[in-house]
Structures are given as structure tokens and as C-alpha cells.
Amino acid sequence: MSSLTQLPNSLEQHWMPFTANRNFKENPRLIVGAQGMYYTTHKGDKVIDGSSGLFCVAAGHGRREIAEAVQQALLELDYAPPFQFGHPASFELSRRIAALTPGDLNHVFFTNSGSESVDTALKIALAYQKARGEGQRMRLVGRERAYHGVNFGGLSVAGMVNNKKAFGLGLPWALHLRHTQLPEHKFTPGQPETGAELAEDLQRFVDLHGADSIAAVIVEPIAGSTGALVPPKGYLERLRAICDRHHILLIFDEVICAFGRTGKQFAADAFGVVPDMITMAKALTNGVVPMGAVAVSDRIYETVTGAAPEASVELFHGYTYSGCPVASVAALATRDIFEREQLVERAAGMTPAFLERLFALRDLPVVTDIRGYGLLGGIDLAPLEAPGLRGLAVMQRLYDGGLMLKMTGDTALVSPPLVCEEKHIDEIFSKLRDVLKSQ
Ligand code: PLP
What CATH number should be reported for the domain whose range is 68-340? Predict the structure, then answer.
């Protein structure tokens, strides 16, 4: 029995992240095993994974290829410092990511999480503007209802209120576009027809504050954690055009979308808009080892490196574990699986069946809205006396009935592993229907 399967003597000392700690510790949900599409709970039950862990286990659980690559890496090269030294695997991984990214996003900076990827991208945006002689451009623009992780940069540009309210003012000069969920979008599969003009908020910031004060705008192409808000048709194109007009960098936070969630490699490909940077994490290593990355354009890389004196450090930023051997190797093994099993194409093939089952839930009285794109869906539920209570109760009942879903407030997020088959989608939605119809 390992420490993963042996039940702990006490739950009290562990302060759990984004968790109702007191509620959890009264009725714990411990996972002791995972294989393919299923978890095993500490009570011995099988639970289907309807949200790829936290959007990360794209290739399904318990992949031997990744485990074996990680084991071998640990024995060959446990660690190598990433500052002023390197090791082959992170270079090979950068090459393979750069081959996938759209446009000229040919340079990759490694981090350990989505939050770090976001803060790295924001810092690179500031460094880029400074390197081209526009260091006064310090404003960073985010959006209402955005989630960009938990570090101070990402928190400052994000717009999920509960995540922000305990933590003070954040970065000065952060601005927020309005979110894109309009009342007429209710129950619209895919991209809504209306709302592209909301991108003009960026032009209003330019008019009000001056383009020469704005470094970058960051958006999730599909706002994931706030409930899968799909961008209106033409919205991202309009943001791109305003950015181009005013030398503002456009960052896509694809921590959820990257690597096939939309049925394309990146959401940038799905929506046909090339940003200047893409943040990623989650599915990069199939969730096995923490790792994130930021892909940046040739222009950004060359401007920042070119502005520094010969033989000096160009960007004073990085992490002890940036591109560490074990994470790089896990990501390479994940890439191999993606290519061999054509997971992005598989996700695209499964999308119609997924969206059909997702939107079929609209007849249930407790369901107030549904959104979906690719293998990502958001289902809003009518709240009880206080926001989040319904979500928590539904999550517990689903789990007891054998389905794990990520809840955000009173919204259920469905995002199965990309290896799912139609029978898994049927199982997920029939379990969901059973619980929701009794609400
Ligand atoms: N950005 C987006 C769009 C995310 O969805 C998330 C996590 O869900 C993050 C950033 C933060 O990632 P992490 O939890 O790995 O720090």
C-alpha cells in the first residue's frame, strides 16, 4: 500500500485550495486511483471523469508511456539548472510546441503552471514595450469574468469577483473589457451571432487613456472557469485589429483551450485569429507533472533579446523549475500520444455528439443556460438561497452517483478527456440528467 492509497490519519492539517475545507473534511472525497476515463474513490467506487481532472488529463488517466518516460528521466537526469545551463529535452519540447503554434509564435518560455504562464506573458509584454522604447506603456487590459490564475498579475487582469475580493487592489492601471455573455445568447451552441462590438471597449480605453499607455490585452478565447463563454463571431478579430492599429500586444490565455479542447490544436486556430502570445499549461503534460509555457512571436523575442547588451541576460525572469527535465520529458511523451492517437482530430470528431447531448439538457427546469464549443460545455443552474449552494450540492450528488464534474459557483463545466468515446459521453450526460432532473 502506498501513501496514495493508504487513508490519512488526519485531514485537519492540509489547507486545501479552492475548497470548502470544513465541508470537505466532514465528508471527504478522496481519490486513490485512476485509469482511462475513470477514477477510483477511497470507498472503492468507480467515478467517470467528466472534466479531465481540471481540464488537464486530455489523453486519459494512467498513461504508461508518460510514466515510463518520467521514471527513466528521474534516473538519468533528475535536475539541471535552467539559468545559464540547459538540457536537451526542453529544447526539443520547444521545437515541437513551436511547430504547432500558429503564425510566428516560434519561441517558448517555460513555467510551472497556468498562473505563472499568465504572469510571465504579462511581464514579457511590459519588457517588450520597454525594449522598443515604449516603457511608459504599463496598462494591462483584461476582461470581466476572466480567470487568469491566482498570481497578482493574473488576478489583476481577471474578473471573477470572489477570487479578487480578499486580496486588495492588485496591479495599478489594470483595465477590464466587458464580458461577452449577452442575454440573447442563451442556449446558443458555438459562437453567438451578436456581441462582436464589445471588442470596441478596447478602442474606448485607447481613446480615454491613450494607446501609448497600454502594453497588452489578455483574454481567454473561450472564458473557461467562468462557465465556457464562447466568443461572439467577429469579436476576437476585432480585438486583433484594434491591437494592430495601436501597437498593443494580444495575449490568448489558452491554459484550458490549448492542445485540442476546441477540436483544433489551439483556440487561435479554431477562431482564425493569431495572437502575439499564447499561454498554456494543463494538457501539456497530461496533468502528470506541473508545467506551463508561453509561446511568443519572433518580433517579441527578437526585440527583447536584441535590446540587451551582448552576453547579458535579456529577460530577468524565470523559475527554478522552468522546463525541468522530468516535466519536459512528460510533455514530450504526451506529445507522442497526441500525435500517435490523433487526439485533436478525435476531439473534433466527438464534438457533434458531445454538443448534442449537452444541449439536450435544456428541457430541465433547473437549467437556465447552456454554452458549448468543442469538448467544453458550461451549464448554468438556478441558484438556491445563496450562490454556489446548488453547485456544491449537485457536485456531491454527481460524485456519489459516479460522475466527477468541475463546478464553478452554480455552473457545471463538462470537459471530458479527448480520448472519450461515445459511450462515455452517454454515461456522463445520463448521470448528469438523473441528478439535474431531481433538482
Ligand atoms: N488561465 C486559465 C485560462 C485557466 O483556466 C487557469 C486554470 O484553470 C489558469 C490560468 C491557472 O492555471 P494554474 O491553476 O495551473 O495556475
Answer: 3.40.640.10
The CA-atom distances, in angstroms, between 145 and each of 158, 228, 349, 408 are 7, 10, 30, 12
Buried/exposed 375-394: b ≥16 CB within 10 Å, e otherwise? bbbbbbbeeeeeebebbebb
Measured from the Cα of 117, ligand 1's closest atom is 10
Domain boundaries, the chain: 21-51+342-437, 68-340
214-255 pLDDT, tens digit per residue, is: 999 999 999 999 999 999 999 999 999 999 999 999 999 999
C-alpha cell at 135: 516603457
What residue ranges line ligand 1, CB within 6 angstroms?
Answer: 113-115, 118, 147-149, 220, 224-225, 253, 255-256, 281
pTM of the complete model: 0.98
Tell how far the Cα of 282 is from the centroid of ligand 1, in angstroms: 8
pLDDT digits (tens, 9 = 90+) for 165-202: 999 999 999 999 999 999 999 999 999 999 999 999 99
